[in-house]
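Quick one: structure for this chain?
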Amino acid sequence: MEGGFDSPTPAGGLVVECDQPYLIVRLPTECRTLGWSLSRPGFVNTSIVAWLEVRNADLTPDVDPLKLLEVRMARRGLHDAVAFMTSRDIRRHHMAFRSVERCVASCVATVGLANGETIGARRKVEAFPGTINTLVHVTRPLSDAAYIEAISIVAQARTAALFDTAHLRAGPRITGTGTDCVIVAAPIGPDAESCAGLHTAVGEAIGGAVYDAVREGAEIWSVESKTDSP
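Got it. Here's what it folds into:
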């Protein structure tokens, strides 16, 4: 379902607060996260993942994007959040959930595709703002290997969702954008899942949640981008 304008919104164990220009996702417990985001990439522990909406005018050539993000997050009291940055209207966030056996996966994503690329063939044109920022939370602890495998499932699901969204642009299909970011979060605890691939319940849950959230976001972006065209 598309994120609306209500705040906070209980969602599959997550609490999502949309307070433009911030989107704040409070995790059910402190989690270990893995991914690449502008702030706090790699393995870190956190209970909050947040987005900051920015405009083109905020990111002039003399501005350090990370510094801008850190200052804005600190202003909102989100010093310890793992944080994304997007030019997408933050109210256009998308949530999806998938329960498979012992695992529930929850995905929150923002989808902008003006910066769309095709794998292995960069466009030799000016890059425009646009990114897919994806957070996935699973209810099962993960081993280091499972975290890495989960990242691969998120990337596959994102691209599958884009491929199944018709008419995003003429020419080669978009497989992602030049600034996509992914974070996988899982609780800290014993009995961690050793694998998170396509044959596992965790992998199935992650893939389904990400596919549904990104597919909805891509479809809405496609409609809006055509409406905004001259």
